[in-house]
Amino acid sequence: MPRTPEAESFFHAVYSAVQEIPPGKVTTYGHIAKLVGTPQRPRQVGVCLKHLPVPSADEATTPSPRFHHDNVPWQRVINAKGIISPRSQPSGARNQAAALEAEGVAVTTGALGELMVNFAEYGWFPRLLPSEVAAGAVLSSDEDEGEESE
DNA sequence: AGGTTGACCACCG
DNA sequence: GCGGTGGCCAACC
């Protein structure tokens, strides 16, 4: 859990943004960082997910946190190389891969055992969060899709 | 109270 | 295209 109010709001923003990734899609830490207005801190996005609280260890005694492991689709965030971050133990990445496959995302295994997802097929990279668009943010009509066709 | 680590990334050689 | 570097900042020694 964050120690300072700013950190808490940052965590909050990150979790909200991650919740907007559609099922069956993936994005990157860096993109989430951009979406929340701090493009230079992809690293802290990873920190946020790492510290994602468990749903409710004891629902009766513990105040259920607004964001937790079960309502924030952390598995839909991977690194900019299209690889599921191995972080420290491969088991974690395997677990994440399984969660993605469960929602229809194809995960391929590289020569070195890296678990990869094809951005061309599953990538989700909006300029603005859907919720912000709904809130009235106006985007210029000069949209342009720079989709790299693999 | 100071130093290191890390679910990262863009940039340069 | 790969390896090193700098920036970022919360968590953890």
TrEMBL record:
GO MF term list: methyltransferase activity
GO biological process: DNA repair; methylation
Domain of life: Eukaryota
Domain Methylated-DNA-[protein]-cysteine S-methyltransferase DNA binding: 10-105
Gene3D superfamilies the record matches: Winged helix-like DNA-binding domain superfamily/Winged helix DNA-binding domain
Keyword DNA damage (UniProt): yes
Keywords: DNA damage, Methyltransferase, Transferase
InterPro entries noted in UniProt: ATL_DNA_repair, MethylDNA_cys_MeTrfase_DNA-bd, MethylDNA_cys_MeTrfase_DNAb, WH-like_DNA-bd_sf
The protein's name in its UniProt record: Methylated DNA-protein cysteine methyltransferase
Organism: Podospora australis
